[in-house]
Amino acid sequence: MSKAISIDPARGFVALPASIFDLEISPGAFRALSVLCNLSDPQGYSWASLEQLAEWVHRARSSVSSYLVELRAAGLVSTETQTRSNGANYRLKIKVLFWSKWVQARKKCASPAPQKTERSIQPAERPTKVKHKPIKTHHSEPAASELIKKVYKAWKGLTSGVTYGQFSGAASPALMKDSEKILATSQPPAPVPIEGIASRLKDLWGGLGVTVSISELSEMVMRCKNNSFSEGQLDALESEIQAVWKGHWKKPPATKQFATMLSSAKNAVSADTMLRLIEHDFRQYRKLHA
């Protein structure tokens, strides 16, 4: 028997779905994923520091960090940094996103399947007679209200042609009141998490028939994350890519080309962008005139 591995039943084992072997991830990322699966509770959660993971994966801390970025971009894990009371980072809360379903699937396979019984179709399951009804997706952005557009244009008029952070004149009481009303009732857009960015970009390139490697997708995801892209800005990025992309292009954009697309999407005047600028200008004006 080989001495390269010690067969110790007390250490247990980890069962992985065979579809993992179909994933286009690096060997290091696969090793890290295997370790995380072994650490996970039935819901897929585990808690470890980068130093501990580096020890178990037998790689440098920086390498493990890059493996986690790769796994997040592939939609396999999510991570959350946990801190001490003094604000210092001390461990990661990591979730293997498919683990809970995998545990449940294995339990079902281990027990005999219950016999299916006939049942009548419930009213909610019957096909609707309403046709051509608009469908709103999970990331559809509501159109900016007329008040938001009006206030945005007013602030733009006060900031055009002057030094950043300064204003060309006084803001009217009505503008200040409307700005305060908007900010009290409209939540400024939150950045999309890494998993959401990865999912949307993966679907986008797949729909365009473009093959994107995990490393290429990871780079795009991190660029969007570093720019704190909101859902509205991701919508703008998708529109920008679809507008310029040629049907015969089968390779992903070069770094410089993608950076240009990001810049256009970031500067798109969406409802998200208007809210961000209104909030910035309103708070900056109050700060200067406090």
Explain what this protein looks like in three dimensions.
A hairpin with a 5-residue loop joins β2 (77-83) and β3. The N and C termini lie far apart (79 Å). This protein has helices spanning 27-39, 50-57, 61-73, 99-110, 146-159, 173-185, 194-207, 214-226, 231-244, 255-266, 271-288, and strands at 45-48, 77-83, 89-96. Residues 117-143 have low confidence and may be disordered. The chain folds into 2 domains: 13-103, Arc Repressor Mutant, subunit A; 140-290, no CATH class. The chain has 290 residues and is mostly helical. The chain is 50% helix and 7% strand. It has a 3-stranded antiparallel beta sheet with strand order 1-3-2.
Count the DSSP helices.
11
Strand order of the largest sheet: 1-3-2
Q: Tell me, briefly, the overall form.
A: elongated
Average pLDDT works out at 79
Helix/strand order, N-terminal first: HEHHEEHHHHHHHH
**What is the helix content?**
40-55%
> What percentage of the residues does DSSP assign to strands (E)?
5-15%
Task: Please count the beta strands (DSSP E, at least 2 residues each).
Answer: 3
Largest sheet: 3 strands, antiparallel
Calculate Rg over CA atoms. Answer: 25 Å
Structural class: mainly alpha
| Count of separate structural domains | 2
The first-to-last residue Cα distance is 79 Å
